[in-house]
Design goal:
The protein is an alpha/beta fold and about 375 residues long. It has 2 domains: about 170 residues, Rossmann fold; about 170 residues, Dehydroquinate synthase-like - alpha domain (Dehydroquinate synthase-like, alpha domain, Up-down Bundle), CATH 1.20.1090. It is built from 14 helices and 10 strands. A 6-stranded parallel beta sheet has the order 1-10-7-4-2-3, with helices on both faces. A two-stranded antiparallel ribbon has the order 5-6. It has a two-stranded antiparallel ribbon with strand order 8-9. It is globular, with a radius of gyration of 20 Å.
């Protein structure tokens, strides 16, 4: 017995951003985007597309949205734009996370009250909600088709990660335009795609996997393994950009139902304590996690085997060579982790919420 659910209407293809006015309709919207969007001409393009329907722009978002930065944005949004109908999030995963945080309103209009609810880890009904149109400018996070967002509290005395996941945080529509990824610098292109690779693999070695998520995850993983190296060599190739954007979207559709697992659970400490970008933090351990997954379940082994054009016993080495060939070290010590710490980090990660999704968590 299984179920698969994803309520997001997806618009995909080069130039599909031009459909934004039709998706928005007669409603009023606020654009949430990243600081460089204006310099890229993206903010002006959205303003030209929407005209008077766009009533505000919030562009001072930051990577890994932190409580300290979000507090002002949140209170400004609910003070100045409480009458808008839709939040349009345009950017990478951090921007879309910010948009999801802003769309969930507390009765007070204060972020502290939302954080307090998230800290309890229990479902809740928001006091106020805006609709979301999600437009990724990276090919990696899949956030446009998942209900998940991450809010960080990097204060030295707290070092916390909060997960926002409500039925209200599904986007109503995702507009995935591969042309928007053409200006990405090499590092962002790489780490974003590796995030998507992690999503696809994590959806497979997962206790919540189902036949639909398996098909999506295998397709996404195979596409990234095949298309990412040539894309890094030819970053201006729109066809390659389109294939990797499709793979990232497909991986998002997979893990939207399974959530992530051990590699992501390890990544949170790597980001908080060692400063690794998310895509790198959740992908450099993939060969190690793959080795832990193989042999746990014949059914999961059969799905993983569909990804690799080699015996599954050789897949760890193939995946390690793939990452190392892209300049990504698969060793903890390369990122400043002291000897003995990786074993402790893996143990702790297995006890985390995402770690418990891993098929080998109870072994």
């Amino acid at each position: 017995m299984w179920r698969y659910h994803n309520p997001v209407e997806v618009h995909f293809g080069a130039g599909v951003l031009n459909q934004l006015p039709q998706v928005l309709g007669a409603r009023k919207a606020v654009l949430v985007t990243f600081p460089e969007a204006a310099g890229f001409g993206l903010t002006r393009r959205v303003q030209d597309l929407l005209g008077a329907s766009l009533i505000g722009v919030i562009s001072d978002t930051q990577p890994n949205p932190d409580v300290a930065n979000l507090t002002g944005l949140y209170e400004r949004f609910w003070r100045d734009y409480h009458h808008c109908d839709v939040v349009i999030g345009i950017g990478g995963g951090s921007t879309l996370d910010t948009a999801k945080a802003l769309m969930i309103g507390t009765a007070s209009g204060k972020l502290d009250d939302l954080v307090a609810l998230l800290a309890k880890g229990a479902p809740f009904t928001p006091a106020r909600v805006k609709r979301l149109i999600a437009i990724p400018t990276t090919a990696g996070t899949g956030s446009e088709v998942t209900p998940y967002a991450t809010i960080w509290d990097a204060a030295p005395d707290r070092q916390k990660k909060y997960s926002l996941m409500l039925k209200e945080t599904w986007a109503e529509a995702a507009i995935v335009d591969p042309e928007l990824t053409l200006s990405l610098p090499p590092t962002v292109t790489l780490y974003s795609a590796l995030d998507a690779l992690s999503h696809s693999l994590e959806a497979i070695w997962n206790v919540n996997a189902n036949p639909v998520s398996d098909v999506l995850a295998v397709a996404a993983a195979r596409e990234i393994l095949a298309k990412l190296p040539p894309l890094m060599a030819r970053p201006g190739d729109l066809e390659l950009r389109t294939r990797v954007a499709w793979a990232a979207l497909t991986a998002g559709l997979a893990f939207s139902n399974t959530k992530t697992a051990l590699a992501h659970s390890i990544s949170y400490e790597m980001t908080l304590k060692h400063g690794l970008p998310h895509g790198l933090a959740c992908s450099f351990t993939l060969p190690m996690v793959l080795a832990r997954a193989v042999g746990r379940s014949p059914a999961r082994d059969a799905v993983l085997a569909r990804i690799f054009d080699c015996p599954l016993t050789q897949a760890e080495r193939v995946l390690q060579d793939f990452l190392e060939g892209l300049g990504v070290s698969t060793r903890f010590e390369s990122y400043g982790v002291a000897a003995g710490e990786p074993e402790r980090m893996v143990r702790d990660a297995l006890e985390g919420v995402r770690g418990k999704n891993f098929i080998g968590a109870s072994a």
